[in-house]
Amino acid sequence: MWPTAFVPLWSVLWEGIPIHIQIGDVRTLEAENWQVLPDDRQRMVEIVGGAVVQDFGHVAQGDRISCTATVLASDWEKIKRYWDEREKVDVTDEAGNTWHNMRVTVKAYAYVPHFSKAYKLTLEFWRI
């Protein structure tokens, strides 16, 4: 029989553990579908006899970040206040990257089944 060593649970890198983000004063219970939607200002303009492409390049200030997050009811009230009052907040992702002066936009919200004090939010963050 091989001897086993005690390994503290907090020191193990786990796959699939809930990811937390920070939105202003709110730390989410979990976050998923984190993605950056770049603002690539390129469009095609059709003219008689051909087409012209207008390309203004990538405009970083127009990038939007979206995710789905789970929060407690008290934190939902804070996020709702950020949204209603158009308050600018810092947003920190699971990797520790911080975006400053972001506007919070709530795209959808719902109760979490079987947990009446938790909400699942679909959020979007805009650079201001």
Write the layout of secondary structure elements.
Blueprint (H helix, E strand, L loop, with lengths): L21 E2 L2 E2 L2 E8 L2 E8 L2 E9 L5 E9 H12 L3 E5 L5 E15 L2 E13 L1
Antiparallel strand pairs: 1-2, 1-7, 3-6, 4-5, 6-9, 7-8, 8-9
Description:
By secondary structure, the protein is mainly β. The chain is built from one helix and nine strands. The strands form two sheets. It has a seven-stranded antiparallel sheet with strand order 2-1-7-8-9-6-3, covered by helices on one side. It has a two-stranded antiparallel sheet with strand order 4-5. Strand 1 (22-23) and strand 2 (26-27) form a beta hairpin. The longest helix is centred in the middle third of the chain and has 12 residues, at 73-84.
